[in-house]
């Protein structure tokens, strides 16, 4: 049981990385990325590919970050000519294309079976891995908070709110979007890397679009444009999600109910908050940037 | 005439069959203050929009400090030093007045500055400026929540904080409390004294007389006058543009 | 060759109705409503349930499509209308959340297994050189009739003219006395009906299961965007382009191009061609292939 709690905590911390990443895009910059899981996938497959070619985890991290940066640039490039809703469709499609490629290019990715046998980082056991994931989460939190409390953060929020005003002040809107995508790609890629080595396996089933919406739910419920909110949303949803199987056993339900409950948690949570409390549990703090 | 900071040649813009700018030629001298006048619908705002890149033009050359800017996007034109304000400024709902003011000055806003924790020493005394414009009481409010006149003030202050070479103001006093018009005029004079060239679209003639030694008048997409504000009343085409042909005859008879 | 044409028409029909529904809704309610593809799932499920309790198939289908139309109107009034105030991307994620709830409900009521309508399966017959089943013909007939009916309403009735006027300029339409809210309700209802019919036609030919909706998202969006979101009849052409690409991708030997004797696209990629078209369209013609077409009222 204690191991299970550690496992849930590790996954919650890793999801926190993805939520912080999406929150910078969606909450601060207003970039509705519907392909967030592909950024995770770039990090995960970077780790797995490096491993399958006989390189160590450090090379895997570098490869993952390179792939995630490339993908972030592609996303940003698409955003130059598209409105928000069209960009959402574009990112969703690219994520699905990448999942299809990962499923079918067996020679490269191991196909539907994925790539297994990755080592635990530093040979860590569960507590060690949890410490590592928590350290990554804390570091990301601090760096991203520094970013959003800066003048760059102000520019990004101005881009979200009044792009025309931002342009009239000389801000390079495409450049801002590109930088936001690049900087938020790093924690997402890092999450993929850590996850791959934690579960020692990478496969296309980890890249379903529903995962993206689970992360959306974390950010929307926790609070858009609030880093603590994103982490809170990730932890809360992970705990709820992990307790679903227990509820199923206690109530004697079939396994369909587990899948349905997870869908309801994501979809219902999103709808409830979007309609009744769009600012989330921890709202954005207006006026907190002082210098 | 001193060297122009802005030079416009043959600028044309039509919306469908409706010609809004019919080939404008205009030079703006370095350090000058030019009033841009004209009846509603004469093309003043479209002139600002096309020159600053917010609306694509149909034809014409636009040079800023001798370099062509007509193919640049609005952000790039602004970075070259040509900044504009909007007739109806829109302000962010989820940023405070003070935060928006801070964002107006671009220096130190790079991602590298943020990651390295560099705080560029600001030349801008944000709090002093807010104080001067009587915006201190609303400094911590969402910028979208202040009155239209306050938004106008804020947008002018932001444009100046951006430290432009040439600032185009679209009706800076419309909707602003009369007491504050003098403050805006003083603010613009100070900026001009520090070398900022100004182009002011404005209907308030007292404001124009007080600020602009030179006026150009647009009517139906054509430049019809280029003179001192005091000579406008004697300019036949200007009178005609504002009063119509019949009104102009009546005005001549009366004189 | 006639088999190829037949496959093409059949595949176009799969996507066209739902794509038209999506595009028609977008013309007035400006966000890509992902729930549309879930309406296409609810339609056949409701039909299935109603047919099971003893209603004739056509009656079951009619009741189900009307019910989905009403559901679309209710959801618009209670959910999407409010979310749209926070922006199109927020409304879009909201419509996706609605879809997840729909899937959850279907999962616990209908279960994850595929079902079929209880029609006697007839062997394929030869029609102008193509192998065709009776159900395929029924499906084609039904979707063609629905598309034709919608086009007739759009171009030859007052309500259709009001719809097009409101889509072109809502403020102007309101100023000329058009009841914009009423028009929005009508087109939302129509979009629900079309999507439900699309799903019914799709499941007539094959199976119905809870993944129908999610599987439709990308081909339907590809078709609607190629046709220009908000241009309902363009979506039919968009669907044809998608179908054509898929059919060509499936039946072309790419071997000679790459110096090999035979090289066919792996089956799994054929579905992905519509994603690829979608991304290309978004890169180069985001507002549709026919963007120069002038809207007339």
From TrEMBL, chain A:
In the bilayer, the protein is annotated as: Multi-pass membrane protein
Which Pfam family, an example, fits this chain?
A: BPD_transp_2
Its cellular-component GO annotations read: plasma membrane
Is the keyword tRNA processing assigned to this protein? Answer: no
Listed A to Z, the keywords are:
Cell membrane, Membrane, Transmembrane, Transmembrane helix
Give one GO molecular function term: branched-chain amino acid transmembrane transporter activity
The record's section on InterPro entries has: ABC_transp_permease, LivM-like
Q: Where in the cell?
A: Cell membrane
What PANTHER family does the annotation carry?
HIGH-AFFINITY BRANCHED-CHAIN AMINO ACID TRANSPORT PROTEIN BRAE, HIGH-AFFINITY BRANCHED-CHAIN AMINO ACID TRANSPORT SYSTEM PERMEASE
The name under which this protein is listed is Branched-chain amino acid ABC transporter permease
TrEMBL record, chain B:
Entry keyword annotation includes Transport: yes
Which ranges does the record mark as transmembrane? none
Key words, A-Z: ATP-binding, Nucleotide-binding, Transport
Which ranges carry the ABC transporter domain? 6-245
Q: Cellular component per GO?
A: plasma membrane
Task: Report the Gene3D superfamilies cross-referenced here.
Answer: P-loop containing nucleotide triphosphate hydrolases (3.40.50.300)
> What SUPFAM superfamilies has UniProt attached to this entry?
P-loop containing nucleoside triphosphate hydrolases
Pfam families, per database record: ABC_tran (PF00005)
> Known CDD domains for this protein?
ABC_Mj1267_LivG_branched (cd03219)
Q: Does the keyword Cell cycle apply?
A: no
- List the molecular function annotations (GO) for this entry: ATP binding; ATP hydrolysis activity
| PANTHER family reported for this sequence | CONSERVED COMPONENT OF ABC TRANSPORTER FOR NATURAL AMINO ACIDS (PTHR45772:SF9), CONSERVED COMPONENT OF ABC TRANSPORTER FOR NATURAL AMINO ACIDS-RELATED (PTHR45772)
Tell me its family.
Answer: Belongs to the ABC transporter superfamily.
Q: What is this protein called?
A: ABC transporter ATP-binding protein
State the organism of origin.
Answer: Enterovirga aerilata
> Species lineage, top-down?
Bacteria, Pseudomonadati, Pseudomonadota, Alphaproteobacteria, Hyphomicrobiales
TrEMBL record, chain C:
- Residue ranges annotated as transmembrane are 12-29, 49-77, 89-112, 132-156, 183-204, 216-249, 261-284
Q: How does it sit in the membrane?
A: Multi-pass membrane protein
- Name of this protein: Branched-chain amino acid ABC transporter permease
Provide any one GO MF term from the record: transmembrane transporter activity
Protein family per UniProt: Belongs to the binding-protein-dependent transport system permease family. LivHM subfamily.
Q: Give the matching Pfam families.
A: BPD_transp_2
* Compartments where located: Cell membrane
GO CC annotation, single = plasma membrane
Q: Which GO terms describe its biological process?
A: amino acid transport
UniProt keywords, alphabetically: Amino-acid transport, Cell membrane, Membrane, Transmembrane, Transmembrane helix, Transport
Q: Where on the tree of life does the source sit, at the highest rank?
A: Bacteria
Please tell me the species this chain comes from: Enterovirga aerilata
Q: Does the keyword Ligase apply?
A: no
Stored InterPro entries: ABC_transp_permease, BCAA_transport_permease
């Amino acid at each position: 049981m204690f191991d299970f709690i550690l496992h849930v905590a590790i996954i919650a911390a890793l999801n926190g990385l993805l939520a912080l990443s999406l929150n910078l895009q969606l909450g601060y910059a207003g970039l509705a990325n519907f392909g967030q899981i592909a950024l995770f996938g770039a990090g995960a497959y970077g780790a797995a590919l490096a491993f399958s070619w006989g390189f160590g985890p450090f090379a895997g991290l570098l490869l993952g970050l390179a792939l995630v940066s490339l993908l972030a640039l592609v996303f940003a490039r698409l955003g130059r000519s598209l409105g928000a809703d069209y960009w959402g469709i574009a990112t969703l499609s690219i994520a699905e294309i990448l999942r299809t490629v990962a499923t079918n290019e067996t020679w490269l990715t191991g196909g539907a079976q994925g790539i297994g046998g990755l080592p635990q980082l530093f040979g860590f056991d569960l507590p060690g891995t949890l410490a590592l994931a928590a350290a990554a989460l804390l570091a990301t939190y601090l760096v991203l908070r520094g970013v959003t409390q800066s003048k760059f953060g102000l520019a990004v929020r101005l881009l979200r709110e009044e792009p025309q005003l931002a342009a009239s002040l000389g801000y390079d809107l495409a450049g801002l979007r590109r930088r936001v995508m690049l900087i938020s790609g790093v924690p997402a890629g890092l999450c993929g890397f850590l996850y791959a080595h934690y579960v020692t396996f990478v496969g296309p089933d980890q890249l379903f679009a529903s995962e993206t919406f689970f992360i959306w739910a974390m950010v929307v419920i926790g609070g858009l444009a609030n880093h603590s909110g994103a982490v809170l949303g990730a932890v809360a949803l992970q705990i709820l999600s992990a307790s679903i199987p227990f509820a199923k056993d206690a109530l004697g339900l079939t396994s369909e109910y587990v899948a349905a409950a997870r869908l309801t948690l994501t979809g219902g949570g999103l709808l409830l908050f979007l309609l009744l409390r769009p600012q989330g549990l921890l709202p954005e703090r207006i006026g907190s940037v002082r210098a | 005439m001193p060297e122009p900071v802005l030079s416009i040649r043959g600028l044309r813009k039509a919306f469908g069959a409706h010609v809004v700018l019919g080939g404008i030629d205009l030079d703006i001298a370095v350090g000058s203050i030019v009033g841009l006048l004209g009846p509603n619908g004469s093309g003043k705002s479209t002139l600002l929009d096309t020159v600053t890149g917010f609306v694509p033009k149909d034809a014409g050359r636009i040079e800023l400090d001798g370099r062509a800017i007509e193919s640049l996007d609005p952000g790039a034109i602004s970075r070259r030093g040509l900044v504009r304000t909007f007739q109806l400024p829109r302000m962010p709902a989820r940023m405070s007045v003070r935060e928006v003011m801070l964002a107006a000055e671009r220096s130190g806003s790079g991602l590298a500055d943020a990651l390295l924790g560099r705080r560029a020493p600001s030349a801008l005394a944000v709090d002093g400026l807010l104080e001067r414009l009587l915006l201190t009481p609303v400094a911590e409010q969402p910028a979208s929540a202040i009155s239209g006149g306050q938004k106008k003030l804020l947008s002018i202050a932001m444009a100046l904080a951006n430290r432009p070479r040439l600032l185009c103001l679209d009706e800076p006093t419309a909707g602003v409390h009369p007491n504050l018009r003098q403050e805006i005029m003083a603010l613009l004079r100070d900026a001009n004294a520090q070398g900022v060239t100004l182009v002011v679209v404005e209907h308030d003639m007292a404001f124009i007389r007080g600020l602009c030694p030179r006026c150009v008048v647009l009517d139906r997409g054509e430049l019809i006058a280029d003179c001192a504000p005091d000579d406008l009343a004697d300019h036949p085409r200007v009178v005609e543009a504002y009063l119509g042909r019949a009104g102009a005859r009546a005005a001549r008879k009366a004189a | 060759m006639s088999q190829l044409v037949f496959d093409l028409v059949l595949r176009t029909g799969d996507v066209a109705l739902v794509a038209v529904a999506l595009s028609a809704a977008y013309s007035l309610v400006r966000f890509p409503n992902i729930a549309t593809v879930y309406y296409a799932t609810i339609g056949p499920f409701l039909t299935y349930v109603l047919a099971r309790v003893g209603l004739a198939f056509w009656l079951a289908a009619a009741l189900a499509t009307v019910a989905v139309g009403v559901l679309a109107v209710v959801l618009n009034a209670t959910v999407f209308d409010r979310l749209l105030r926070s922006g199109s991307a927020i409304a879009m994620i909201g419509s996706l959340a609605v879809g997840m709830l729909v899937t959850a409900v279907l999962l616990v009521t209908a279960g994850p297994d595929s079902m079929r309508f209880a029609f006697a399966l007839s062997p394929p017959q030869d029609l102008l050189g193509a192998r065709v089943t009776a159900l395929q013909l029924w499906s084609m007939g039904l979707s063609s009739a629905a598309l034709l009916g919608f086009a007739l309403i759009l171009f030859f009735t007052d309500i259709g003219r009001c719809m097009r006027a409101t889509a072109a300029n809502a403020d102007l339409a309101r100023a000329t006395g058009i009841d914009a809210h009423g028009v929005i309700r009508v087109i939302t209802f129509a979009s629900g009906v079309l999507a439900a019919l699309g799903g019914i036609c799709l499941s007539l030919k094959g199976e119905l299961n809870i993944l129908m909706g999610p599987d439709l998202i990308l081909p339907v969006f590809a078709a609607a965007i190629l046709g220009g979101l908000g241009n309902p009849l363009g979506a039919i052409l968009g669907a044809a382009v998608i179908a054509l690409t898929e059919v060509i991708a499936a039946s072309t030997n790419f071997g000679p191009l790459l110096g090999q004797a035979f090289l066919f696209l792996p089956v799994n990629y054929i579905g992905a061609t519509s994603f690829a078209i979608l991304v290309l369209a978004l890169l180069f013609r985001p507002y549709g292939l026919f963007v120069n077409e002038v809207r007339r009222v």
